[in-house]
Amino acid sequence: MIVDALRVFVTVAEQRHFSKAGVLLNLSQPGVSLHIRNLEHELGAKLLHRSPKQVRLTEAGDILYKHAKQILAHYQEASQEIQMLQDEVTGSIHIGASFTIGEYILPGKLAEFAGQFPQVDLQVTIGNTEEIIAAVRSNQLDIGFIEGETQDAELSVIPYMKDELIIVAPSNHPLSENVVVEQELLQNQIWVLREHGSGTRAFSDHFMQAAGISSKRSYVFNSSQGVKEAVAAGLGIAMLSRWIVRKELASGEILELRIRHRHLERNFSMIRHKESSSSMALTVFIQKLFTQPSIERNK
C-alpha cells in the first residue's frame, strides 16, 4: 500500500537512518530498503543520498517528504472520520510520561480508558522529562506528559494538573523532630537527588539555588523510587512529589519536613508535536483526561 511506503520514507527521512527507522516501524532493514527502492522506481528518481552513518534527502526526496507528510495527515483524518461513522474507537496510542506521572498517575487513567475502549492498543514509555520531550519532538510518541514545561518551539504545551513537591526525611532524622522547619536548617544537609534531565531535579536545583542552600554531600538516583528508598534507608533528605510518598508518609517510614512560609508547586503538562495528526483514539483519550472535574485532576 502506498501509504505504508510513504510512512517508511518519512520515518527514514526524519531519523536519517534505515536501521533506526526500522526499529520504530518494527521492520527489518531490508524491508525498509525495499519500500524506498519501490518508491524510487515508481517515481523514477533517487530520493535519498546514502552513507554508512546517515542518509540525506535529495532534491526529489525533499519534494516528496513535504507532500508525503500532507498525504499521511489526510489519510489519518480520513481513517478517523470512517471510524467515527462506525461509532467505534480503535487504533493505537503511544504515550510517554516522566517517572512521577508515568508511575503514580497515568496507570489509573489508562485502566479506566482501557475498560471503556478495549479495542485501543495502549503503549507507554516512561523516562525523565528530557527523554520524553525528545521522543515527542522526533514523533516517536503521539503524546507526552512531563513535569514542568518546555520552551521547545516544535511542541504544544498544555498544563494538565498541579503537583505539590515536599521535602522528605528519614523517620529518625534530627530535623524530623520539628513540626515546621526553618528554611535555613536545610543548609549543609545530605541530599538525595534525581539525575540531570529529570523535572524533579530541575525544580530542586532551582529551589536550592534561589534559597542559597548548599549540600554537605549528595547522592544521585535515576528514579524517584530509588530516591524514596534511599531516604527511607536513612541516606539523606530529598525533594519529591507528594504523589510518590503518600503511602510511606501514612505508614511513618519517612517524614515530611514542612518549611515555614513555603509551598512548592509545579505544573504537570501535556505535550504534542505541533505538526502531528490526531487519531480518533488519541482525540477521545485527551478529551477523557481533560473533562474530568478539576478537583480530581488537582488533588
From TrEMBL:
PROSITE patterns (UniProt xref): HTH_LYSR
Gene Ontology molecular-function annotations: DNA-binding transcription factor activity; transcription cis-regulatory region binding
Chain segments annotated as coiled-coil in the UniProt record: none
Domain of life according to the entry: Bacteria
Keywords: DNA-binding, Transcription, Transcription regulation
Annotated HTH lysR-type domain residues: 1-58
Similarity comment text for this entry: Belongs to the LysR transcriptional regulatory family.
UniProt protein name: LysR family transcriptional regulator
